[in-house]
């Protein structure tokens, strides 16, 4: 289980102080698919960056299975697969295959495991034809597929995605969703942010709604539907924001 306790993070923008995450507490259940939704600037990406130890909170603690993640950064990072929006993390002068090999080596994988994992991912994402081409000539969608494969190369048990289907065509988006179902069956913990409510509705068991750095709902989707007597996520999110519901 991932536990976030009284976490805050602020940034300075010229003379202004922006509180990106404001005293947030929540739990992400192990083996569940959790959707993270909110407007641009709600604090979603900042929260995800703290979860993967890229930035530390100004206040509060984050733990995975009872261990403070900032006391065990390297151990935590080996358990995580992370993809942030348009930040593919790829090297343009390397081929798709070389990129995946490089990241597999970073995670200490054997050459045998790297080869097998690349073959599996290339086949699954329909990338076989361009695995030996340099990434710099790829379309946005092609780069995004390689970036997702890079995220999954070491078969992590906790996966964090920020807008994972950005730039993907319908077929590739559907393949990604199939991966989510597979991860769920394998008992992996997945958190992903998206503006596509249908993805939340079809893929997630739990949802976290953020507004201006705070939580307006955290919990199971079915519990939310039952409590609000509606299954319209757009309406439910807007309703929570308008009412000013806060989870502290």
TrEMBL record:
<dbReference type="Pfam" id="PF00005">
    <property type="entry name" value="ABC_tran"/>
</dbReference>
<protein>
    <submittedName>
        <fullName>Sodium transport system ATP-binding protein</fullName>
    </submittedName>
</protein>
<dbReference type="GO" id="GO:0005524">
    <property type="term" value="F:ATP binding"/>
</dbReference>
<dbReference type="InterPro" id="IPR003593">
    <property type="entry name" value="AAA+_ATPase"/>
</dbReference>
<dbReference type="InterPro" id="IPR017871">
    <property type="entry name" value="ABC_transporter-like_CS"/>
</dbReference>
<keyword id="KW-0547">Nucleotide-binding</keyword>
<dbReference type="InterPro" id="IPR027417">
    <property type="entry name" value="P-loop_NTPase"/>
</dbReference>
<keyword id="KW-0813">Transport</keyword>
<comment type="similarity">
    <text>Belongs to the ABC transporter superfamily.</text>
</comment>
<dbReference type="InterPro" id="IPR003439">
    <property type="entry name" value="ABC_transporter-like_ATP-bd"/>
</dbReference>
<dbReference type="InterPro" id="IPR050763">
    <property type="entry name" value="ABC_transporter_ATP-binding"/>
</dbReference>
<feature type="domain" description="ABC transporter">
    <location>
        <begin position="2"/>
        <end position="237"/>
    </location>
</feature>
<keyword id="KW-0067">ATP-binding</keyword>
């Amino acid at each position: 289980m991932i536990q976030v306790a009284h976490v805050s993070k602020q940034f300075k923008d010229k003379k202004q102080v922006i509180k990106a995450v404001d005293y947030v507490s929540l739990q992400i259940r192990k083996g569940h698919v959790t959707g993270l939704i909110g407007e641009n600037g709600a604090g979603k990406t900042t929260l995800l960056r703290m979860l993967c130890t890229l930035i530390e909170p100004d206040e509060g603690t984050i733990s995975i299975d009872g261990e403070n993640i900032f006391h065990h950064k390297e151990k935590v990072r080996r358990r995580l697969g992370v993809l942030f929006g348009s930040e593919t993390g790829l090297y343009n002068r390397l081929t798709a295959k070389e990129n995946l090999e490089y990241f597999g080596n970073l995670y200490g994988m054997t050459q045998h495991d790297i080869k097998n994992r690349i073959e599996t991912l290339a086949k699954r994402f329909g990338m076989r034809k361009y695995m030996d081409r340099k990434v710099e000539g790829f379309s946005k969608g092609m780069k995004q597929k390689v970036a997702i494969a890079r995220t999954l190369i070491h078969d992590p048990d906790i996966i964090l995605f920020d807008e994972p289907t950005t730039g993907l065509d319908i077929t590739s988006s559907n393949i990604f969703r199939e991966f989510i179902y597979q991860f769920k069956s394998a008992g992996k913990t997945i958190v992903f942010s998206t503006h596509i409510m249908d993805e939340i509705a079809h893929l997630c068991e739990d949802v976290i709604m953020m507004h201006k750095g705070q939580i307006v709902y955290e919990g199971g989707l079915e519990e939310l539907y039952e409590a609000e007597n509606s299954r319209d996520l757009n309406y439910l999110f807007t309703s929570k924001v308008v009412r000013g519901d806060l989870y502290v």
